[in-house]
Amino acid sequence: MINTGWVCGDFNSGNRIAMEKTRETIDMIQKGRINGLPTQTDSVFNFTIPKLNHLSEEENFPFKSADWSWNALNLREKFNE
User: Fold this and answer.
1) Domain assignment of residue 26, yes or no
2) What is the value of pTM for the model shown?
């Protein structure tokens, strides 16, 4: 799964990940360049996310932002309904 959505805030304050960064991420996957990179795992969805140097910390690991946990827990609950 590739996050191409909103980061660094909600739709009123955040921004979409730049298309160039999304293309670079896909290129890295296709060429196997994400294999062996350090990863972090979010605690809500248990996604393991590789550290990609072309993304900012918040783009790469949105679960570190202040609002993410509340929104993620709310979304997970909707999936479980």
Assistant:
1) yes
2) 0.75
